[in-house]
Amino acid sequence: MSISIVTVNIEYGNRNLKKIKERSDLIIKYNPDIIFLQESNNNAIKFNNYNLINYSNINSESIDIYLKKDSNWKEYYIDEFYTTLSFTIRPCKVIFLKNNFNNKIIKLANVHLCGGRFDENDKIGGMLLGNLKDIRNRKNEILKKLIINYDIDIIAGDFNSDLKCFIDNKI
Questions:
Q1: CA angle 166, 87, 111 (to 5 degrees)
Q2: How many helices (H) and strands (E) does the chain have?
Q3: What is the pLDDT of residues 29-71, one digit of tens each?
Q4: 95 in Cβ contact with 88 (< 8 Å)
Q5: For the chain, what percentages of helix, strand and coil (3-state, to nearest 5) are there?
């Protein structure tokens, strides 16, 4: 019983359709069972052998989960929640997959945690004011929620570095 997972922040392809296609082609090359995308662009991505898992996706940031059509894993349960703990609303998507052969269930989460260019840049976001402790506490809140509320086996996605805070010595 194995599962293959690829996760990548598409960065909306920097709004560049050629870059989105290059990244999509690279993902397909590895033929994973499940694909986790952050900053996705569904209008430009074509994964013909995959089904896009249907979440409400009502906020401005798109993170997506694709499941290979011929995978030995099938969608069993999905849920999502949103955090407003950063400059941008961050979705967290949960999926439980059930194995066709042994009925085992694996619990996965796709996240895009706070930090990065908006939250760490005081001129753009200003919410965290470059405070590494606040950034880490907010990240831990989400991770704890996933573990406590969903008993998640694997958390994947974009965890965002705390590099700017470290470089600016604001630890």
A1: 80
A2: 4, 8
A3: 999 999 999 888 777 788 899 999 998 755 556 889 999 999 9
A4: no
A5: 25, 30, 40
Q: 34-38 and 73-83 as β-strands: parallel, antiparallel, unpaired?
A: unpaired
Q: Which two tokens stand for residue 106?
A: 């694996």
Alpha carbon separation from 134 to 38, 53, 108, 114 (Å, rounded): 22, 32, 26, 10
Q: How far is CA 135 from the centre of its chain?
A: 17
> What pTM does this model have?
0.82
Q: Which residues of 32-48 are buried (b: 16+ CB within 10 A; e: fewer)?
A: bbbbbbbbbbeebbebe
**Contact criterion met (CB below 8 Å) for 87 and 69:** no
User: How many residues does the structure list for the chain?
Assistant: 171
Residue matched to tokens 């798109």: 62
